[in-house]
Amino acid sequence: MESSATSSSTRSSTPSSATPPLRRTMGRGGAESLSGTQCPSRGRRVPPSSGLVLTQTFKVDVPPTGSPTTVVFPTRTVSKVLEWLSLPTEQRPDFISLYFDEPDRQGHATGPDSPELNQQLQRVDKQISTLMAGLAERDLLHCVNILLVADHGMANADPDKVIKLEQYVPEISEFADVFFGASGRIRLKNHEEDVLLNLTQRLSCQLQGMRVFRLEDLPKRLHYSNNRRLDHLVLDLDPGYNVQDLRPNVSKRPPAKGQHGYDYYNAEMNGLFVGYGADLQQGLQVEPFQNIELYNLMCILASVTPAPNNGSWGSLHHLLADPPAPPESIKAVEPPAASYTKDGADTPHNTTTGCAGDAGVIQ
C-alpha cells in the first residue's frame, strides 16, 4: 500500500453482514486494486476505480495419487508484484495483495512441528526476502506499508482422536451431511425439529473432547448463529480431535497431522501479524487482536473510507506512527479492550453443555 498521510475524517464502524472486500473499497476510493493470488483465474487488466481484481493464473500438476506436487509458483508471484511496482507512477497500483498457501498445506500433511514444515517456512521467508530486496532496489521501502498476516494457526492432530460419528449414530449418513475437520458440522438433508433434537441427544456427552451445539446455543463471541448458510449442529472439539469424513472415497485416507478451526482461545490457533512501513510504528510489540480489525487499518493506510464493518474504529491506532484524531463524537470513549487476553489459552473456554467435565462458560 502506498504510504500516505492518514485522514481524520469520520469512518463508520456500524455492524454489517455485507462488508465488501478491501479491493472493492479501494476501487470506490479511487485506488487501483490488484491481487497477486495463486488462485486459478482469468487475469485481466482493469481500469482504476473499477474495484475488480487482477489475478495470475498458475497451473498445479496433480498426480494420480490426488496429492499436489511441490508448488513452485510463489517465486513467480513475487516477481509479478515487483513487475507491477516497476510500472510508472500513474500506472502503479495502490494496493497489492500476495498470498502463499504454505506453510498451511504442509502443516496439514505433516503437522506444525515437523521438519518438512520448517522447510516451507524457510521457502516463504526467502520469498519475503526477495520482495524486500526488490523494494529496496526500486527505492520504495520508504513509501510502502507492508502487512504480513495469517488467518489462523495450526495444531497437531492426534490420529488416535479421530471421531467417527457413525459409531454413535450408525445411520447418520442417511439423513444428514457431515462436514469433517477440526470443527465438525452437521446439516440435515430435511430439517425436521424432532430429528434434530434426537440427533443432538444421541451425540451429546459421548466424548469429553467434543461438545455438541445447536446454532442458537453457541457462545455469542463466535458470531456464528445467524446465516442461512450455517449448518444445524456444530461440534466444538478440543485441539487434537478430528471429525472423520464419511464420504466413501476419502474415509480410509490417513488423517491429517495438522488442523485448524479449533476455538480461537487456544494459543495454537493464533495467527501472525508483522507490520513494516512509513506509516507504522517500528519496534513495537502489541497485544493480540482479532483479524476483523485489519480492514479499518488497511483503509487508513490506503487513505480510503471504510465501508460499514464489524471492526472497532480506533482499535489499532496505536500501531500507526501518526494516528488520526478521533471524531468529536467519540473522543471521550475509552479505547476498546482486547477481544481476548494473551493468556487466554490457559482460560477454561468450553461452554457448559450439561455433560460431565465441561468447564465454565465464556460467552
TrEMBL record:
Signal peptide: none annotated. Residues 1-52, 338-363 are annotated as: Disordered. Coiled coil: none annotated. SUPFAM superfamilies: Alkaline phosphatase-like (SSF53649). Residues 1-24 have a biased composition (Low complexity). It comes from the Eukaryota. Pfam families: Phosphodiest. InterPro entries: Alkaline_phosphatase_core_sf (IPR017850), Phosphodiest/P_Trfase (IPR002591). This is Uncharacterized protein. PANTHER family: ECTONUCLEOTIDE PYROPHOSPHATASE/PHOSPHODIESTERASE (PTHR10151), ECTONUCLEOTIDE PYROPHOSPHATASE_PHOSPHODIESTERASE C27A7.3 (PTHR10151:SF114). One of its GO terms (cellular component) is striated muscle dense body.
